[in-house]
Amino acid sequence: MTSGTDDPGPVDQPATTAADRPGAIDAVPVRHPGRWVAIAVLAVLFAMFAHLVLTNKEFDWKFVFQAMNQSPVLEGLVKGTLLVTVLSMVLGVGGGVLLAVMRLSDNPILSGVAWLFTWFFRSVPRYILLFTMATLGILFKDGLSFGFPFDWKIIEWLGMSGDWRFLTLDANQVFTGIVAGVLGLGLSEAAYMAEIARAGIMSVDKGQLEAAEALGMNRGKAMRRVVLPQAMRVIVPPTGNETIAMLKDTSLLIAVPVTTELFYQLQSIGSVYYKTFPVAVAATLYYLAATSVLMVGQYFLERHFGKGFGTKAPRAARPAGAGGA
C-alpha cells in the first residue's frame, strides 16, 4: 500500500559562486586618542619630576645616604621599626583572632566584652594611645603587682598581714620605651584585626563547622582545623595591609618617646645639621624599601591561601588508568 502523497525527493540547491560569498570584514580598531594624550601628559610630568630630583640641590643626595648609613639610624630601623612591627602584629593578630571568636560567641558577656574592647581601641587615635600608654605608670605608684586579686582586702578581713603577690614590677619601667610602644600599637591593632578575623570566619559556611562537630571535633579544634584555614583567604589581604600600615605607624613612637626608632634618629641628625628635608627623603627611602618587601610577601601569601579560588580554568583530568610519567 502506498501513501497518498508522493515524496518529491531531495531538492537541488543552486550552486554558490565566489561572488556570492561575503567578503572579509575590514575591521578598524577603535581609536583612543584620550589615552595617548594622558600618556603624553604623564611622560612630561615624570620628566619634570626626574629633573627636579636630580638637579635640585636641596635634595643633597650625598647627605641623604650618609644619614641613612649612621649606626643609630640602622639600630632604629631594626629595633624601633622592624622589631616593633613584628611584635605589635603578633600581639594584634593573636588578640584579634581571640576577640573575633568572642564576638561570635553565643555568650552575651564574652560578645559584649569583645565589642567594648574593639569600640574603645578603634576610637582612640594611635598617637594619643601611645602617649597615654607612656603615662600609665602614674596609676601604679606602688608597682605593677601580680598575684591573688584583692589580696589586701581579704588579708584585712582575716586579720592577717603581708600580701599574696608573687611578682611586682616597676610600672615606670614597664610603660616606657619599646614595651610601651608594642603594647599601645598591639592593642590598637587587635581591635582592627578582630573585625578582619570576624569577617573571615563569617565568610566560611556554617555547615563546615557543623560537619566538623558531627565528626567529633570540639568547637575549638573545629575552628583551628576547619574554619580558620578556609577563612585565611579573606583574612590575609587586609592583614597584609595592616602590617604595612603598622610599619609606617612606628614613626608615631615619638609619642612615648622611643629614641631607638628610625624617624626619631633621622630627625635628630637633621636638627643638628639643619638638614630637615634630606632626612625626610632618607626616611622615605627606608619606608619604601621595607613596605616593598612586605608587599612581595603579601603577594605570595595571598597566592598560597587563594589556591582553588582563582579565575584560571582547572586542568583537564587525566584518563583513568593512565600511567605516571
Automatic annotation (TrEMBL):
InterPro entries: ArtM/GltK/GlnP/TcyL/YhdX-like, MetI-like, MetI-like_sf. It is a multi-pass membrane protein. It comes from the Bacteria. The keyword Glycosyltransferase does not apply. Keywords: Amino-acid transport, Membrane, Transmembrane, Transmembrane helix, Transport. Pfam families: BPD_transp_1 (PF00528). The chain crosses the membrane at residues 36-54, 82-101, 113-140, 280-301. Its main location: membrane. Residues 78-298 form the ABC transmembrane type-1 domain. It is found in: Cell membrane; Membrane. Belongs to the binding-protein-dependent transport system permease family. This is Amino acid ABC transporter permease.
